[in-house]
Amino acid sequence: MDFFDTLNRLCCLAGPSGFEGTVAQTANELLNPFMDEVSVDTLGSVIGVRHCGRPNAKKILLDAHLDEIGLIVTGIEEGFLRFATIGGVDPRMLPARELIVMTKPEPIFGVVACVPSHTQSKEDQEKSVAIEDLRVDIGMTQEEAEKAVPIGTPMVYREGCFRLAGDQITGKALDDRSCFAVLLRTAELLKDADLDVDLYIMGSVQEERGGSGAKVGTYSMMPDFCVAVDVTFASTPGIAEDQVACKLHGGPAIGIGPNMTRWMTERMTEKAKAADIPYQTEVIAGHSGTNGWGMQTCLEGIPTSVLSLPLKYMHSPIEVVAIEDMEHTAQLLAAFVRDLGKEGI
Question: Which residue among 68, 207, 282, 319 is the active-site one?
């Protein structure tokens, strides 16, 4: 599988929480060749299953979310769009940013209005502008804008994916579509393997707004084991070393903490060592900030692991991942799934 081509296809699509339909359709198409069945559930999550063919086989669910952070139109003033945020949008990222306004039948483009530095005081230049004070310019009059853009229209960053030097990729929505690409690669690695568990792969919706997609999907599948695959913070200039424990090209980060079932954490580590797959550990003392938090408490409680892909500049339009880390994360997931029915608790 070509990671860049897959990411470019996924990340160019607009799909903030609650509006993931186009992304789900593409995810369905990409997942279908590796699964026995693929469907889209009531909330919009994509769910694929590969049956191992063994009677009473246990089920493992691998999850990565498809949604991205975004904006939603709340009003129109003199042709400019007011908006609120969907998910954790950093207001410092917004002035002068290009956006896709998800109008129908075709999207339109907009830019977040900004005040030239020449007209600002030194004090104002050092402040970020509050969300409620920002506006989106779509080049229309009030009357034109009211006809073209219904209140409640979502918006996302316009950027797609681009290559950096080496094997690094930058773009929007790599949180968490890079991890869905990892799940596709995992399915590819396991395509001809003789499994002893039924393999479920989910591209869930609405993670950025509380993880309802993963919770609903988990309840419907009733898996015996879950692995939430999401991104984590990679070290960058300006972040103290004691704040971030992971780095790009260091391999996947195995979560350790109350959101992770201990034997699954230990098995993940053992499989990495046995296969000589580079890995990192990430101590998470409380909420993991992933779908694993809700999946763990579904039904009567489900053994859960959190495996994370290092990513720079999270929740920005220029997130960065390394293809090497994606491949190693897929290899570790594939190693974890093999013989899980025999070796798991």
Answer: 207
